[in-house]
Write a structure and sequence with these properties.
This is Threonine synthase-like 2. With about 60 residues, this protein is mainly alpha-helical. It is about 40% helix and about 0% strand. The chain has helices at about 10-15, 25-30, 45-60.
């Protein structure tokens, strides 16, 4: 299971340390105003299926 991709927006500090320009898009800036949500998920033999089930249930709202 993969959740996120490597985007310069996720690593702004590293991009700036490399001396590269970084101008985050408006969509990325808007994310900063959203609340952070998370759930702890114990790693079990079926952790990927458990994660997918939780994600599907959350998306149905």
């Amino acid at each position: 299971c993969y959740v996120a991709t490597a985007s310069p927006a996720k690593f702004q500090e590293a991009v700036e340390k490399a001396g590269l320009p970084f101008d985050p898009p408006e969509a990325v800036l808007a994310l900063e105003s959203l609340p952070t949500r998370y759930q702890n998920l114990e790693r079990s033999q079926n952790w990927c299926e458990d994660w997918e089930d939780r994600l599907r249930a959350w998306i149905q709202f």
